[in-house]
Each structure stands twice: as C-alpha cells, then as structure tokens.
Amino acid sequence: xxxxxxxxxxxxxxxxxxxxxxxxxxxxxxxxxxxxxxxxxxxxxxxxxxxxxxxxxxxxxxxxxxxxxxxxxxxxxxxxxxxxxxxxxxxxxxxxxxxxxxxxxxxxxxxxxxxxxxxxxxxxxxxxxxxxxxxxxxxxxxxxxxxxxxxxxxxxxxxxxxxxxxxxxxxxxxxxxxxxxxxxxxxxxxxxxxxxxxxxxxxxxxxxxxxx
Length: 212
Prior knowledge:
By secondary structure, this protein is mostly beta strands. It has one domain: Exo-inulinase, domain 1 (Jelly Rolls), CATH 2.60.120. The chain is 4% helix and 36% strand. The longest helix has 9 residues, at 2-10. It starts with a helix and ends with a strand.
C-alpha cells in the first residue's frame, strides 16, 4: 500500500483505492486510480466506459479510452505494461500502445494487443492484431488473468499469465497495407477498446514501467 501511495504522490494525484490495487513492484506506476476515469480520455460513445468495484468496464458502442494522464506525459516509447483482464462470454476488446487520441473510429496509430477468448473473431487474446496472431485460447471467460507486453526498440513481447505468446521484431522499413499504415513502432499512449454492445470486458491494476 505504501508503494501505491508513493506512486500516486509521484504522479501528482491523491486518488488511491486499495481494494484491488497492488504496487506491482519496483518501477511500476499505476495508470488507473481504481475510483474514476481521471487521467483517461474518451471521445464518442463515452458512456461505453464505467468504473465499478475498482475496475474499468468496457460495455457499449464502439469507443476507445485513451490514457491522458501525467505519467511520462502519456507518451511512451520503451516500456513494460500489464493489466488484469476479465472477459465475459462472446466479448472482444483490445489494448493499444504507441497510439494517440482520436475522437471516433478504430485507432489508426499504433498496435493493438488483442483481448478475445470466445468472440467470433478468430484472433485470440495475446495477438498482435493482424500482425502476429494467436489462434490458441490460453485463458477462460469470467476469470481474471494478466495480460502484459513490453516494447524495447523494435521488439514486442506479449505474455498471458507470464507465458510468452508473441515475440515480434518489426523489420526495418516495414511495409504495411494502406489501411494499416499506422501500425508501426513509434511512441504514444495506451488505449482500451470498447468493441461492441455485446462485449463486456473488465480491466484493473493497469500499470506501466517506463524503460527510458
């Protein structure tokens, strides 16, 4: 608890909630205070995101919740990220990195780390969406699991409950289709996805460890 308070003071907020939060260990900084969406920003369909019992719930029309807070001025390049996630049956979501705020639509900048254990989309939890996809299902709906990923240079490693499911290095001068031109290692913030009204996904203990 003392580590969490120290982190909160360090990033200039007095909002703390110990119900679900852990310090995460040395160097880890919480991005979500467990109480409200302070430090986060959403455009259209803002009602898709709510906070209950220390968790962010994504449930509603397509929307994206962007981290807009003070940690690294919400601009990350090399980092480790982790969150506890729980999906309800048939749900789809994702966690973007190296992205930037946009009012509506699917984020055009950055990569998406997939959250999907039983949705009709075959790309499962842990996929680096449409770049290096995972077909296997490693975790179950209605159960909390940890989804983590790191970026160092051009290398992206994605883990599900500490199991590596993607290890991808972006090629030099990577060539992307026009509709994926923004899928490149660069810098930016994180975003949580509200995919559709039939999807319900829970996030908590959202943390980052900057590496630069």
